[in-house]
Amino acid sequence: MQKPSRYVGGEHGEVRKDWSAVSARLCLAFPDVYDIGMSHLGFKILYGIVNEHPKLLAERCYAPWSDMEAELRAHGQPLRSLESARSLRDFDVVGFSLQFELTFTNILLMLELGGIPLRAADRGEDDPLVIVGGPVATHCEPLAPFVDVAVIGDGEEKTPEIMLTWTALKAAGVPRRERLRELVRVSTKTGGGLYVPALYETEIEPETGVRVVSKPSDPTLPFPVKRAMVANLNDYPFPSGGPVSATESVFDRVSVEIARGCTEGCRFCQAGMIYRPVRERDPESILDTITRAVKDGGYDEASLTSLSTADYSAIHPLVKAVMKKFEAEKVALSVSSLRAYGLDEDLLDEIKKVRATGLTFAPEAGSQRMRDVVNKNITEEQLMTTAERVFARGWSKMKLYFMIGLPTEEEEDVRGIVQTGARARDVGRKVQRGRGPDVTVSVSIHVPKPHTPFQWCAMDAKDLVEVKQSWLREEARAGGVKLKTHDSEGSWLEGVIARGDRTLGDVIETAYRHGARFDSWEERLDLGAWQRAFEQHGIEPARFLGTIPVTARLPWDHLDVGLEDGFLLREYRKALSNRLSPPCGKVAGAFVHHTNLVDAEADRKRLVCYDCGVACDLGQMREERLVFLRKLGADERPAPREARDPGAPKVLPKHMRPPPKQVQGAPMRVRLAYRKVGLAAYRGHLDLVRVLPRILRRVEMPLWYTEGFHPRPDMVFGPALSLGIASLAEYVDLKLDGDVAFSLDGLVERLNAVSEAGLEFLAVRALGGQDAGINKVIDEAEYVAAIPHAWLAERGLSDLDALRARTDTARAGSLVVRRIIEGIGKDVDVAKYLLELAIGAGADALEAAGLGGALVPLRMRISMTGQGTAKASEVIEAVLGEKDVPHRLVRVGLFAMRDGRRADPTDLDAVRVKRTIQAHDVASEVVEAGGDAE
């Protein structure tokens, strides 16, 4: 496996429940790799809600990469959950998150590997209920043949309801199809939100030739299906616990959702439409959650996140309050989804304390006319003011996100994208002088999404996209900014599926059968497989990408996201007239929320509402904001900022400043011994480098950090283990802040209480100034190899005497093997390093590491010198005379030699004596040569 840690579980914070003690079991199945899925906040929320319920259980599963898929198929093994290693078909409910249309083939992959029939019509009475949720569930007709239930809207209330209802009906012997009807009926009584494709009929829309949902097969079922909405997010506090990623993930930090919905009303943005209205979490709850999450998880970075985080009504005092809690703990705070206006200097000053590299903004369009078309309420002046404020604080990088392919777009609008980036860079040069900052312009391709004002628009053809990208490259060469563009093939396929109908189900399955997997990964997209599938089913994909008559029914019209009839069309027509709509829920004419209670209470201007159909209580919204400001202690108006002296020295950019100095005491050195067995053996060395500091922070060890722009805990590990090798004794030297009181008493027990499965701490020792580092005291390693008895028997070596004879013969000759590193070969003489080889010895080490079966142990001692060492796998190759011998390894220990005896590196007296003897020997030689002993 490329990354076996993706599949084994055992992370800190995972929940393992007794299957026999619950009524319903849910597998949260994310249709992408672990590295991406572990950052998904929706799964984190549902995992916490379900596992807090005494009658429910939730486990996780992620899409297997191609290497794992091949092994599962080769061994006839099902795809399993991480917590209990149960097949997906063993669960009552399997729930997929639909975040992106290009993950649909991965859903089929997971269903098939999990032992669940792909098509809903083929599932039997005992098969799991397959549900989907997330933003793409609002236009899921292409996936309808494979889905039992789609949850439209928020899932916090609906998920437990579905689980309990489904299992109760099944236990009562209700047939599967009637269970589906009853699920909808029960849900309708509690606000709706469930769509069962099999219970709705379809017909061809004459104006477009596209298949649309016409009516329910049972007139008692809802039509259209209304979305579910959690009116008050504080009824479902964001979870502080949950599994902590065991390998690097896309957003490798604790993230807390502070609000849902967005005030801006950008006409291309589906999320801004389907998650209305804006609902904010109580700041006290946010503070409590993020503080506990950082402590429980051991994180050193946290993030406040929402669709538009800067629009949270109390964002300024909230950022200050969070940073005040974290400033002594060296925890960095990031603020996601910043818009390019309204960031005042106080907020930027706060963010700057912990965010030293760059900021990202999304102007979206390169001309003012186009920004008005998409309803991006920002002017060129506001964007440049933000750039000046950012670069004046020493930021060295800025990334700007734009789109091409927007309706009414002209050549000057496209070229204006890079020109806008160049102007922002010029502002930075004036502020910082000299070379100035780096500005990157990232340009994606607009896909007209359902439930947005642009849902009727045509999508740019591939050749037109390529022309527009050539204009961008021309401007980038002239303007001196970095340019990143997106692949048009993936966007084309995304557009087809997003605007597609139920007939695309056959295409999706055929493309999957032709090998389509991980289509959202640019390097993995096989457009040929999709084109063959379209041709096989006689479907012309271009029909889904053209302009749609506004009078035609759409494949997603039967799913009501809460917007009143006519709202999207009004916004579409305003877009074509270059007319703006103001941000909703804000004071007319204002772009910045009040930062203090005094100004907020004095301002009684009307809040803007432009009647989208979502019921908002603007009076309650205003009062809630005042409550939040009071809770955060924002009672006083901040002191006026002093006018900037034009003659004052400018803030130097990062590349011209010295690295920041860490405020910490003298370092105190400590050596930890630990074992790495079972699931932990599948964590690579880089995973361990990430995981170990988090474990140490959970017990509040005052870690000492390196200096520089990117401080890290100062740790030195013993010789790294190759992936998959278990170890009964490993060592790491680390430094603690000597100015912080911290006792080592009982530390081993405290560490083990918050560690991960298979990672067990054994001993801790305080190091003195005379104690050498771990890598300077280790002289040899001991391993036990486990070789399958069947493999040896095939070669006539099942008898230990025969095996000894083979190895003795090999050791009498040459033990040179060829080591290949990055394509370069090197001969290694294993005999130089092999101290001892014992056939049949070491069974106890295999047992301690959890290895069992018909295995023959080989114990070996290998020297580790300044000139090099041999790998245990190289010893096996040399003494058995074959490459690729199947085996598993256990490192029994690392040792220092003293007077011919081995010493444990935590036996500091023995190690220290050894070094003293060596120094005495050197001094004696110097004296004999006529020199001074000192």
Automatic annotation (TrEMBL):
<dbReference type="InterPro" id="IPR023862">
    <property type="entry name" value="CHP03960_rSAM"/>
</dbReference>
<feature type="region of interest" description="Disordered">
    <location>
        <begin position="637"/>
        <end position="663"/>
    </location>
</feature>
<dbReference type="Pfam" id="PF19864">
    <property type="entry name" value="Radical_SAM_N2"/>
</dbReference>
<dbReference type="InterPro" id="IPR058240">
    <property type="entry name" value="rSAM_sf"/>
</dbReference>
<dbReference type="InterPro" id="IPR023404">
    <property type="entry name" value="rSAM_horseshoe"/>
</dbReference>
<dbReference type="GO" id="GO:0003824">
    <property type="term" value="F:catalytic activity"/>
</dbReference>
<dbReference type="GO" id="GO:0051536">
    <property type="term" value="F:iron-sulfur cluster binding"/>
</dbReference>
<protein>
    <submittedName>
        <fullName>Fe-S oxidoreductase</fullName>
    </submittedName>
</protein>
<dbReference type="InterPro" id="IPR007197">
    <property type="entry name" value="rSAM"/>
</dbReference>
<dbReference type="InterPro" id="IPR018768">
    <property type="entry name" value="DUF2344"/>
</dbReference>
<dbReference type="Pfam" id="PF04055">
    <property type="entry name" value="Radical_SAM"/>
</dbReference>
<dbReference type="InterPro" id="IPR045784">
    <property type="entry name" value="Radical_SAM_N2"/>
</dbReference>
<feature type="compositionally biased region" description="Basic and acidic residues">
    <location>
        <begin position="637"/>
        <end position="647"/>
    </location>
</feature>
<feature type="domain" description="Radical SAM core">
    <location>
        <begin position="248"/>
        <end position="487"/>
    </location>
</feature>
<dbReference type="InterPro" id="IPR006638">
    <property type="entry name" value="Elp3/MiaA/NifB-like_rSAM"/>
</dbReference>
<dbReference type="Pfam" id="PF10105">
    <property type="entry name" value="DUF2344"/>
</dbReference>
